[in-house]
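Researcher: Here's a chain I'd like modeled. Treat it as a single chain, no partners, no ligands.
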Amino acid sequence: MKRLNGKTALVTGASSGIGRAIATKFAEEGAILLLMDITETVREGGTPTHEILKAPFFQGDVSSEVDAEEAVRRAAEPTGRLDILVNDAVFNIGGKLADTRLDDWNRTMAVNLTGVFLMCRAAIHQMQRQVIHNEVRGRIVNISSQHGMIARAVEQRWLDYSHARTPLPRLGRSEDVANAALFLASDEATFITGENLMVDGGWMAG
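Model: Modeled as a single isolated chain. Structure tokens:
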């Protein structure tokens, strides 16, 4: 039995990177998907995620209240429920504080903070109307970066430092986070809530 067989999942930021890996992993495990992103273009290049997975795609902005609610509505349409929300959409500018424009700051806050709030609120409204299934009405997995706890590595010297600090012999891959998201979204994690799970090869423990 596939771990997400028949469950409906909405993944934001699904076109590229970690979101793409999560969507792929969820599809392999039997989830009924709606992929959401501001664009279908893959940052790394290649065929759009939704075309590969043959999953519906909603081009929307998580910082838009209307788009957040519409995405949840569409995700719940096939089965009448939303079992899983994965918030992976991110706006990342990097660089130095002194060089950061106000427009970029505002966009970062809108996507990375307000967007998570809007998507969670819309999902919770839907989940509260649902019958409890396997002890839960639904699950929400919020993805963030270890760089929310330490400075962002944007130079080669900091990447080299990260390699040296990580106890495991490599840095993380998108698939590592996808596997963690799969576990948290599955029935195996029914009794886990409100936890921060670091998928960093021991970086923060170093």
